Amino acid sequence: MRVLAAMSGGVDSAVAAARAVDAGHDVTGVHLALSAKPGTLRTGARGCCTVEDAHDARRVADILGIPFYVWDFAERFTEDVVDDFVAEYAAGRTPNPCLKCNERIKFAALLDKAIALGFDAVATGHYARLSLVDGQPELRRSADDGKDQSYVLATLRPDQLRHAMFPLGGSVKPAVREEAAERGLMIAEKPDSHDICFIPDGDTRAFLTKHLGERPGSLVDDETGAVLGAHAGVHGFTVGQRHGLGLRVPAADGRPRYVLSLEPVSGNVRVGTAEKLGVREIVATAPTWPSGAEIAAGTRCVAQVRAHGGTAPAEASVVDGKLVVRIDGELRGVAPGQAVVLYREDAGGDVVLGSATITATS
Question: Which helix (H) or strand (E) holds 63?
Answer without folding.
Answer: helix 51-64
